[in-house]
Amino acid sequence: MRLAMVKLGVLGSGKGSNFAAILEGISSGQIPARVEIVMSDHANAGILELARSSGIPAETITEPRFKTRLSEDIEAAVAEKLKAAHVGLVVLAGYMRMVKAPLLEAFPHRMINIHPSLLPQFPGLDAWKQALEAGATETGCTVHYVDDGMDTGKIIAQERVPILPGDSPTSLHARIQAAEHRLLPRVVAELCSEISGL
Ligand code: GRF
Predict the structure, then answer these.
(1) 114, 184, 188: residue to mutate for ligand 1 pocket, most atoms within 8 A of CB
(2) Band of the pLDDT at 4, cuts 50, 70, 90?
(3) How would DSSP label each residue in 187-198?
(4) pTM to 2 decimals?
(5) What is the pLDDT, as a whole number, of residue 3?
(6) Residue of the CA atom closest to atom 14 of ligand 1
(7) Which candidate in 86, 109, 115, 181 is catalytic?
(8) Which of 9, 23, 69, 75 is disulfide-compatible with 82, CB 3.0–4.6 A?
C-alpha cells in the first residue's frame, strides 16, 4: 500500500536555509512529504523568495501590533490558511515569534521548531552567542514540539556541536546551522512517516 504524502506548512522569518534543507530532503526522497504553503512575518524574507522560486505558495503575515507574537485574530487567520491547505505538520524553520492558542489548538502535537542550542540550555534569541558568553565548550541544536513557552516544548531530537577555541558568533552559528540542516530533515522525515502511517 502506498502511504499518502504528508502536507507541510512552513513558517519562517529569515533566509530559509532550514527550509532549503527540507526541500532537498523532499527532492532526494528522504522526506515523504510536500510543502503546501510557506508563510513569513517578514515580507522580504529569503524564505518567501525561495518558496516562490520553487513554485510553492508563499504568503506574508502582516502584524502591525506586536513584535514577538501575533495578534489572536491574525494567528487564527494563519491557522485557517494552513488548515485550508490540508497541512498535516507545521514546521517552524526560523520563525521568530511565540505561538499562542489559535495555532497551537489547530495543530496539537503537529508543530515543531528548530532551535540553535541544546535545550533546555540557552532558550531565546541568539542562542549561539549565549553559549559563547557562558564559556561553554559544546552546544548544538534541538528539534522540539511547540508549546506556548519560549523554546520549552517536548524535545524530539538533538545534535551536539563543539565550540572551538577562537570561535566567533558567526563561525559558531555556521557550524550549528550545518547541524540543523542534518537534524531537521531527519526529524521531519521520521514524523512524516509516522503521521502517514497512522
Ligand atoms: C536557525 O538558526 C534556527 O535555529 C533559528 O533561526 C535560524 C533560522 O535560519 N530559530 P534559516 O532562516 O533557516 O536560515
Answers:
(1) 114
(2) confident
(3) HHHHHHHHHHT-
(4) 0.97
(5) 60
(6) 17
(7) 115
(8) 9
